[in-house]
Amino acid sequence: MADSSQGPASFWTQANALLRKNLTFQKRNIKANIRLILFPFVLCLLLVLIQGLINRELDKPSNRCGCTCIDNNGDGQCERVCGIQYSTLDQANSCPITSPPEWPPLLQIPAPQYRAVRTDFLSYTDLPNESCKSTGSCPATIIFTGNNQSLGESLAGNMFTSSFTLNSSNIMYTFANNVLGSETQTEYTNFLDPAFFSNRSVYNVQTQCTLNSTFSVSIPIAGSAVEQDLDVRCVQGLHLWRNSSSEINDELYKGFRKGNSEGKINEIIAAYDFLNSNRNNFNVSIWYNSTYKNDTGNGPLALMRIPRSVNLASNAFLQSFLGAPTQMLFEFVKEMPKPETQLRLDLSSLLGPLFFTWVILQLFPVVLTSLVYEKQQNLRIMMKMHGLGDGPYWMISYTYFLFISSIYMLCFVVFGSVIGLKFFTLNEYSIQFVFYFIYINLQISLAFLVAAIFSNVKTAAVIGYIMVFGTGLLGGFLFQFFLQDASFPRGWIIVMELYPGFSLYRGLYEFSQYAFTGNFMGTDGMRWKNLNDGKNGMREILIIMFVEWLVVLFFAYYLDQVVASGSGVRRSPLFFLKKFQKKSMSSFRKPSLQTQGSKVFVEMEKSDVVQEREKVEQLLLEPSTSHAIICDNLKKVYPGMDGNPEKFAVRGMSLALPHGECFGMLGPNGAGKTSFINMMIGLVKPTSGMAYVQGLDIQTHMDGIYANMGVCPQHDLLWETLTGREHLLFYGRLKNLKGVALTQAVEESLKSVNLFHGGVADKQAGKYSGGMKRRLSVAISLIGDPKVVYMDEPSTGLDPASRNNLWSVVKRAKQNRAIILTTHSMEEAEHLCDRLGIFVDGSLQCIGNPKELKARYGGTYVFTMTTSSNH
Ligand SMILES: *[C@@H]1O[C@H](CO)[C@@H](O)[C@H](O)[C@H]1NC(C)=O
Ligand SMILES: *[C@@H]1O[C@H](CO)[C@@H](O)[C@H](O)[C@H]1NC(C)=O
Ligand SMILES: *[C@@H]1O[C@H](CO)[C@@H](O)[C@H](O)[C@H]1NC(C)=O
Ligand SMILES: *[C@@H]1O[C@H](CO)[C@@H](O)[C@H](O)[C@H]1NC(C)=O
Ligand SMILES: *[C@@H]1O[C@H](CO)[C@@H](O)[C@H](O)[C@H]1NC(C)=O
Ligand SMILES: *[C@@H]1O[C@H](CO)[C@@H](O)[C@H](O)[C@H]1NC(C)=O
């Protein structure tokens, strides 16, 4: 063993040891890492592939500005010209339009079968008879009300002309002078008015229709030379008085087509309330139907057909009071010019939130299982027992996972940007960085918190992945639905966002929305200034996530200290108040009255055990450092469960062990040896009694004790993927060995347990045989020269040769340290131990050196055999 007179390892030494171990561990895990990183790559590639297909579809001629061949000079050579006049409605959207066409302003006229007629659900008798439906000649109706009926009648009566006045030399003027309407539905834009592209659909609204009031006119389409014949059909316009605006409301409500299953459909052109209008005051409110939607098309709003209904009322007002020559002409409507556009659908922005939620959440089970693995395998406590403090553990584990997550996210964003996903390229990278950074921090803290609950890797993994996919799906199909519903209370959305998965989803959703509109409109995605946008939830989730990160981290640490199923003795829930309590534990206590009282019981014990007890009490009164271990009346009682009585695992153990002594504990299974050791190494809390290791109380100063302690647990606690040498290097570093001393100590240690030759030291521990693992565990417990070593049945499962080997190691090791060793083999105990204790039923039956004990009790062996009675 190397000499190590250094003190306990510093914070940074421990951190360094853990970091190196983790990196080696990660190196071994390279395959899993590649799989992990491939997942986003595959998803991104999939997106790009689908995007490519969509783009190909969108780039088809039927989606691009229409072109045609024009033979200008009749020589059969044609010139290709493109433009809106050669386009279909679908194609027109992408054409460059330098000077948009003028269209006559139209009214929205209900289709003949929906026009208002007399029905039994309305009491009005002034509506036309239903029989007109069969001939398609139903009049179109406006209804009106106001404070002054005669004024209303005159205004409404002035709205429609009595005949169609055609001026073929000026067609636009003609249209402006008449009242035209259409039952078609408008497009998003007014570049092309669908009404002029289907023959059936332009109406001229007149007060009376005659047989010859249907005209055919030739109109230039979109201001070009191409003319189109247009049938303008007459429709009679009715105007009907209603007593109040609430009656109008009622009539409109009852006649609504959508959601009206009983065929009670009564649609009108528009409704007017002239309110308090008079000669000096024109005050009108207009009902219009903005829900006309083309369900087969893109569902545009019909607002473009509204200005004409306003103009009708204003014009009627002017004419009523100022006479017929006064006119307010509404000649045409015209869009603003636009450059050529390409139809683009950014799939990554639409599917992004769902896919990317999966990609990012995927890290959660990875971190979680890795934490739970160390807990399940008791590796955390093993590291702790060899001196790894909570501080370095947390710091290194946290930064380590943060590092891994950051690399993962970096790969993800860089890859997504390189293949050109708009989701990444359009949004400002600094916002993305802040968002991802806060989120992965939150996610890691959350994994730490959740890890405190789980103790099984498989359960943790299953729950983790269910969470990943569940969150994505819930986000995509439920949460997003709420987000898009403007009427959904914002407060509830914030409440939902308290669940980190949803705040992640929200953030990705916002990115995708900005990328999508940015791509569609040819502008930027999200910029910092957009954080102030009313609908942008990015700011609120950044705040939520940041606060949550701190809170979760705090609770994770707290829970780790209090629940601590993997990190040793639980602390009291108020452990952090400890500093305020009086410091009284570090000095040896005076024997209490209670111990005096228990003398009665003591008297009945075996004399050597009593002697030991008295020695302990003596030592407690006169502090000295000659003894490495002092146990005073240590007890462990497990509370009775399901009606069983309490179980006394250890009943009052007193023991004093000087340096340089090896104490052997012999006894049958279940005698309480392991319970005793578990108390001494801080795995379980004693029910009562005291124990001091190197003068430090095991109840309060376990951390100090760990720096000088080595443990070889009954079951080997090893990382499957680390080699023997790496194990020893790690624990050696924890014990503050450095540089040459470290390598030397590791070499010696490997040699001493016979793991040096034949490359065994560099094989992964998972491939070791049982005996090799055992020897490695012993080597671990001895590395770094601990002053106190516990070995729980170190030689079980070893062949005689390795056992001898091990014995010589232990023998050499016990020179300047105290060793407590449990065993079943008297031979081993005799060989190794200076003193022996026989441990039966929770207490020591006798203590002495092997020779004494043999002399006292030797010569007889009890041979117990159980057979059935007839043998
Ligand atoms: C109603 O309007 C008519 C026509 O403008 C007007 O002559 C009459 O005085 C108005 N009635 C009232 C009560 O204002
Ligand atoms: C027809 O329109 C032209 C040009 O605007 C105008 O000069 C002419 O007077 C109009 N004719 C009638 C009958 O309104
Ligand atoms: C809706 O749009 C589609 C395609 O754009 C068209 O074929 C259909 O006639 C329109 N329907 C109405 C009622 O305008
Ligand atoms: C409207 O008011 C007039 C006069 O007050 C009344 O005769 C008529 O019945 C009312 N119409 C309805 C539908 O209530
Ligand atoms: C228009 O009518 C509304 C509703 O009756 C009224 O509140 C408002 O004062 C009127 N405006 C004028 C200018 O009379
Ligand atoms: C308004 O338009 C919708 C079509 O989107 C139609 O179903 C409904 O009947 C119309 N309502 C009225 C009162 O005209």
Automatic annotation (TrEMBL):
GO molecular-function term, one example from the UniProt record: ATP hydrolysis activity
PROSITE patterns membership: ABC_TRANSPORTER_1 (PS00211), ABC_TRANSPORTER_2 (PS50893)
Species name: Nyssa sinensis
Topology versus the membrane: Multi-pass membrane protein
Ranges for domain ABC transporter: 629-866
Transmembrane is among the record's keywords: yes
TM regions (residue ranges): 34-54, 350-373, 393-421, 433-455, 462-483, 541-559
Alphabetical keyword list: ATP-binding, Membrane, Nucleotide-binding, Transmembrane, Transmembrane helix
Localisation per UniProt entry: Membrane
GO CC, alphabetical: membrane
Name this polypeptide is given: ABC transporter domain-containing protein
Keyword Ligase: no
Domain of life where this protein originates: Eukaryota
